[in-house]
């Protein structure tokens, strides 16, 4: 995916639709080039084109946005978070990786580290670790195509049978009392299993994660050991919960 295509997806996340002419003017390229970029994105079912403009192809909750669209949103911040998370991985660790764009980036960041054991329900993370020296276990179950992950009883059963010392988990939403939430119950079920068996729970989320909430709770504040995020600071209610539960708060963009 080239830089123009990433820009198009980011604009659509913010506005829902944009004209081809505006994209041509903003990016300083011809309409022919823009049409080629849009056609490439359209072929991946990331956008829809009609009457001289491009738009998102459907109405969605954030968990239903295609993975390819979500991974370009806040990409620099997610990359910083992934790098900070990778620094917590030690030789011989047994870690669990949640599904999601940030945890897939963590997989990319740790693929060249000394061997560890990794269990995940993220197809994208498993693919990123394909040529690593790590022992990688991919949970089975029902595949969610737009999230590139597995869910359901089979996936949950695998995690309940393991004891990772660290889990890196993302979230679709965070409530005011620092409960982590998801839009889909089956995704929440797998996240819940990972968190219950891990010795250390590390939440990875950009600052926008603190500004929305979803239906299904899979983790409460008392279960979180560390949060890796970016500025600006979370809302005051979240900071109070972080202090009350003695949660380590790491800003991945400090000193960048």
Report on this structure.
With 256 residues, the chain is of the alpha/beta class. 38% of the residues lie in helices and 21% in strands. It has helices at 3-15, 20-27, 31-43, 67-70, 75-86, 101-110, 123-128, 153-160, 185-197, 236-244; strands at residues 17-19, 48-50, 53-55, 94-97, 117-120, 135-138, 142-144, 149-151, 166-169, 173-174, 180-182, 200-204, 216-219, 226-229, 248-251. The chain has a seven-stranded parallel beta sheet with strand order 6-5-4-9-12-14-15, sandwiched between helices. The chain has a three-stranded antiparallel beta sheet with strand order 1-3-2. A hairpin with a 5-residue loop joins strand 10 and strand 11.
Helix content: 25-40%
Strand content: 15-25%
DSSP summary, beta strand count? 15
Oligomer designation? single chain
Parts with pLDDT < 50 across at least 5 consecutive residues: 59-63
Overall 3D form: globular
How many helical elements? 10
Structural class: alpha/beta
Distance between the termini: 25 Å
Structural descriptors:
seven-stranded parallel sheet; three-stranded antiparallel sheet; 15 strands; alpha/beta; 256 residues; single chain; 21% strand
Question: What's the short version?
Answer:
The chain is of the alpha/beta class. It has helices at residues 3-15, 20-27, 31-43, 67-70, 75-86, 101-110, 123-128, 153-160, 185-197, 236-244; strands spanning 17-19, 48-50, 53-55, 94-97, 117-120, 135-138, 142-144, 149-151, 166-169, 173-174, 180-182, 200-204, 216-219, 226-229, 248-251.
